[in-house]
Structures are given as structure tokens and as C-alpha cells.
Amino acid sequence: MGKVVLAYSGGLDTSVAIVWLREQYRLEVVTVTADVGDHKDVAAIRQKALDLGASEALVVDARREFAAGYAFRALRAQAVYQGRYPLSAALSRPLIARLLVETARKVGAEAIAHGCTGKGNDQVRFDVATAALAPDLRVIAPVREWAWSREEEIEYALERGIPVPATKKSPYSIDQNLWGRSVECGVLEDPWAEPPDDVWAWTCSPDDAPAEPEYVEVGFDAGTPVSLDGRVLPPEELVAELNRLAGRHGVGRIDMIEDRLVGIKSREVYEAPAATVLLQAHRELEGMCLPRETLAFKALVADRYAELAYFGLWYAPLREALDAFVDATQAAVTGVVRVKLHRGSCQVVGRKAPKSLYQFDLATYDRGDRFDHRAAEGFIALFGLPTRVWAQVQRGGTDAPSAGKSRQPAGKAVGRAV
């Protein structure tokens, strides 16, 4: 009897999958539950897997690795999918896939399995990550194969003694980890409908948030968050603390229509208080520490980086190459950013950095100004030269240079200031 390693969440789909894999594939099932900060009772989940017939049920505390090696990597890149989604679920999948592959190697499994559907993004992330890390391993996706309705799946579960919640199931599909909480289905499938109050769990309504603003100072070292209000914290604790703090002020609500990889437009609702604050603070610190040309190119890298993560290409060579660029840019991004949280808004109101490119004596208009104003005239003449020549040629005036022949005496500058 061969073995399969199943990514196990404890929910209905993966619980049914334990029994189904044993029945249909005659495989011994080993489950892996990765704790990436989704606040589940992992001990109870482990016991449930064993009760359903898993030969082994492994639980991995991956919170620190997820925060430091995945969420903070994306933060340093400023990776936000389609300008709004901070990639919470997308970033956890390559980590979980790697844990599945490592477990498969240890227990001698011939395949891994997951509970993803055939129309979502996660199936791609698991399948492609496995292909990158262990191309010899087979991937089994029971939900793609059994093609049951929800009612038929519940009937199968009841017939085989698989626990099904007795209360009415929530209409929402929810996934959460340290970096964010994703909600879809139910009334949210109507893009005109405002998300009801029961959608939100991490953030209070901005209308009910404290009337007085709260300030928090985020410290960064080489682009990585390391402290809150001067307290150095491990990455997973820093994110959890900031989730609570910003969520209390209604910060981090996202309601968007996004493009799934399979071609479907989907209405998604996210809560990402910590990610919202950290992305804004990091962006402002970069603006202080990086040259203009680097910032402009890094914005292009950020978009591509976000797409790679969203599309399940975390282990692709391009993502690793982009990381090398990102790492090079972050060496100077060290400092402290002060953020004001108030009724749903997150506003950077102060920043300081030892390697800041902001120079007071160049920026000020006061007596300390050492900018050479006289140099501006020559700069403008050269900077505007292409525009001036184009305008002269288009207007066809007497000042327009003839084709193939210069009308300026030798040694005279065409761009002489008017």
C-alpha cells in the first residue's frame, strides 16, 4: 500500500479526502497541518485526522518561517496583486507545498494531495510548487475528481461517519493566516452588495473605531520590520500585534474584483490590518532612502513579483532572480516610520533614516539653503532641448533647422536659453 501526504485543514473537503483517498486509491494517508497563524485548534485537527484513518497526522508550527521568509519577502518587494491584494493566501501555499514535499520524502510517499477546487488559484499554486520542488511526485486533487455537489459530499461524509457541523454552514468561504484573511461566496458573489457586518472579524467598522487617533512607530532594518514603538519583536509576534492594533481602528479592509489565474473575475473581500500598515510604512521609507530611478524600476519589479506569487510561481527562477534585485535595494532601507491610525485610515506622518537621501540644506527655502539656483537655467535649457527642437520643426518657422544641415555656427549650442 503506497502513501500520500495530504495538506489537511480539518474542514469538510480535506476530512472527506482522507477517507476517499483510502477508498479510491488504496493509499495510506499522512496528513500535514501547517500553522501559519490561522488561529485553529491544531491539536484537535490532528486528532480528527487520526480518527478518520490517517496513519500519521503531523502539525508544523510555521508561523515564524511564514512571516519572515514569505510575507516579509513580499513586503520588501512591495508585492501587491493588482494594486490592492497583499497576497495573504497566495504566500502561504508555497510554504505548505514545501512542507508536503519534505514530508513525502521522509515517509516515502509517492504522491501529495490537497483539497483545492478546479476553478481557484490554490490548485495551481500547490501543483506548480510541487512540480518545481519534486517533479517526480504525483499530485492528487480529490475535489477536482469527485465532482460532487455540496449536498452529495455531505451525504458521503454522513454515510462514513465523517463529522459534519450540525449548525447551518456559514455561507462564506474563509482562509486566513498571519498576513491576512480572505472571504468569498454568499452575498459577496453579488458585486453590487455591500459586505455585511458578519464578513469582518479582524477589523471593527471605521464608524465604531475610537474617536481619537493612535500612533505607532514601525522600525525597519534593511527593509524588514523589526520593532513596534521601539520594542524589538519576532516577526510573527510583530504582525499579530499590529493586526490587533490596526484592526481596532478599522484599518485593512479591502473589497475588490480581481482576476484569477484561470480567467475568472472574482469578488474578494480581505482583511489585512498589519499588511496594510507595513506596506504603507515600508513604501514611505523606501521613498526616503532610494534614488528616483531605482524606485521607478522597483515599481515594475513589484508588479511582476506579485503576479509570480499570485500565479503560483514562487519557486520559479525569475522570482528568485527578482529577489536578488530586491535584496540589493533594501540595504539602505533602515529607519523608523510613524503611522497615524484613525477610523479606517492609515497615514504616514513621520519618517527618519540614517541613510536618508532627504537633505534639509538642499530641500529648505530658508537661510540654510545651499542649492545652486543659478545652475537651474542651464539644466532647464538642456532638459527642454528635445521639446524645443520638436516645436520648432513642427511649426515650420524660420527658426526650424533644415533637414540634414545644421543652421547653427560651429561651436554654438542649439539649446541656448531663450
Could you explain the architecture of this structure?
This protein is of the alpha/beta class and 418 residues long. It folds into 3 domains: 3-159, HUPs (Rossmann fold, 3-Layer(aba) Sandwich); 173-361, Argininosuccinate synthetase, chain A, domain 2 (Alpha-Beta Complex), CATH 3.90.1260; 372-418, no CATH class. The chain is built from 14 helices and 14 strands. Strands 3-2-1-4-5 form a 5-stranded parallel β-sheet, sandwiched between helices. A 5-stranded antiparallel β-sheet has the order 10-9-8-13-14, covered by helices on one side. β6 and β7 form a beta hairpin. The model is unreliable at 402-418 (pLDDT under 50).
Biggest sheet descriptor:
5 strands, parallel
Number of strands: 14
**Assembly of the depicted chains:** single chain
Number of domains: 3
The CATH homologous superfamily of the largest domain is called: Argininosuccinate synthetase, chain A, domain 2
Side-by-side strand order of the widest sheet: 3-2-1-4-5
What attributes does this structure have?
418 residues; alpha/beta; Rossmann fold; five-stranded parallel β-sheet; five-stranded antiparallel β-sheet; 14 helices; 19% strand
